[in-house]
Amino acid sequence: MSTPACAICGKPATPEYRPFCSRRCADVDLQRWLSGRYAVPAVESEEPSDEVPQPD
Ligand SMILES: [Zn+2]
Fold first, then answer.
1. Residue 1 and which of 27, 45, 47, 54 are 20 to 30 A apart at CA?
2. Which protein residues have a CB closer than 5 Å to ligand 1 (ion)?
3. Residue 13 carries which DSSP code?
4. Which listed CATH number (3.40.50.360, 3.20.20.10, 3.30.50.10, 1.10.418.10) goes with 1-35?
5. Buried (b) or exposed (e) across 22-41, using 16+ Cβ within 10 A?
């Protein structure tokens, strides 16, 4: 098994924080992920629409 490189800084990842090398890098990735998630417009189709009557 090879040690994966930290996805943030490229240093060898540690078992405690893998796939990152430290808590800091894990936080950086988390913030990136959250930023990207919130940057994406909400998908309204996931919610049921009241304009479509359901056949009884
Ligand atoms: Zn790192």
1. 27
2. 6, 8-9, 11, 21, 25
3. P
4. 3.30.50.10
5. beebbebeeeeeeeeeeeee
Stronger pLDDT, 8 or 40, i.e. the higher one: 8
Give me ligand 1 centre to Cα 29, in Å: 10
Distances in Å between the alpha carbon of 28 and those of 7, 8, 24, 31, 46? Answer: 10, 8, 6, 5, 29
Identify the pLDDT of residue 3: 78
The answer to whether the predicted template modeling score (pTM) of the entire model surpasses 0.70 is: no
